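Figure 2 data, in text form.
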Amino acid sequence: MSIAQTILEQLGGRRFISMTGAKNFGDTGNGLAFQIPASLTKNRINAVKIELHPSDTYIVKFMRIGRSDLKTISQHDMIYCDQLEDLFERETGLLTHL
């Protein structure tokens, strides 16, 4: 299983996709990137990038992609796999499960 697939499963897999509207998933080599609907999120976040760090923790970036720019809204380092869902919910305002 690739790192990107593992991260998606840690977020909740298909349940995560259906609850958040996440789409356009991309394998970054050592992580996962995807888009979410900005109209539903806090701070109009519309992109997320999660990268595996050599310390076996994650670096998570919440971003807003515009027509001609990319703005990082927040970045979190040293995130453990069991913290991913809570961090995502706190930063975006989107629930990942019922």
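Caption note: The mean pLDDT is 95.
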